[in-house]
Amino acid sequence: MAVPKKKTTKSARNQRRSHHALSPKAINTCSQCQEPILPHHVCTSCGTYQGKQALEIKSKDEKGKKEEKKK
Predict the structure, then answer these.
(1) Of all helices (H) and strands (E), which one includes residue 61?
(2) What is the Cα Rg of the chain in Å?
């Protein structure tokens, strides 16, 4: 069984863990609506990607009307 011969100091332990810190997510702004978005993702508020319309975003009113029709 492997047992360390000497106690690892706090300094050595912390130096080893120096690369374990989490980095914050990169946040860009949408070129159309200026909302914050993740890089390489479609904007959830306006549906554009790299200046081109990628998705048709439906308003809350339209979503509610479709749910009423289904019932």
Answers:
(1) helix 60-70
(2) 25
Domain membership of residue 61 (yes or no) is yes
* 38 token code pair: 């993740």
Domain assignment present for residue 48? The answer is yes
Contact 12, 32 (CB under 8 A): no
Range(s) of the domain holding residue 65: 25-70
- The pTM is what? 0.56
User: How many domains in the chain?
Assistant: 1
Residue 6 lies in a domain: no
What pLDDT score was predicted for residue 63? 63
Distance CA 71, CA 58 (A): 19
CA–CA dist 26, 38 (Å, integer): 7
Q: Is residue 38 part of a domain?
A: yes
- pLDDT tens digits, one per residue of 32-67: 899 999 999 999 989 999 989 988 888 777 666 666
